[in-house]
Amino acid sequence: MSKPKIALVVGSTRAARFADTPVEWIAKIAKSHGDIEVEIVDLRDFPLPFFDEVASSAWVPSQNEVAQRWQKKVAEFDGYIFTAAEYNHGPTAVLKNALDYAAKEWNKKPAGFVGYGGVGGARAVEQLRMHAVELQMAPTKAAVHIVWADFLAVRQGEKKLSDFDHLNQSANGLIEEITWWAKALKIAREADVLNEEAKAA
User: Fold this and answer.
1) Its domain of life (predicted)?
2) Which residue, 7, 50, 143, 164, is most buried by CB atoms nearer than 10 A?
3) How far apart are CA 62 and CA 22, in angstroms?
């Protein structure tokens, strides 16, 4: 079996975003695990409008060209880790919108989260876990929560994320869990394809 391919999705597009810092940090940790492939996927590269299709792409093909390109990119991966900034006790609108612009491409794949902000982005992550379930993803229990004190220390240049042992431990735990689920679900999805081909033969 080929190595599972994991997307590290940058879940904010603001000019002043913090998201690049945790993405680069966890990408380095993820790449040290030799049994997965990792790619950073930046929502800035997919300037999706607010959802304006006649229906979900689960039912009707999307007409928007950026949406079509986004769906093809999402389909390339066997699992996802999203950065989750917390805005007003929830995730960023741009990330929720990106989730809504794909459907079957997310199905039967694991989703993990790196939260930051108030209470380590925990409320944003909890909402995203519910969205992931509705999209037939398997959200992991393991997550990274960068609490406000750690966030400020990094933002102000006093420390780097890699200086915090508890965050490194959380990141490795998340990568290990994502990897396990990505491998297991990849095998299951491939078996589904073989079963469908056998039925059609």
Assistant:
1) Bacteria
2) 143
3) 31
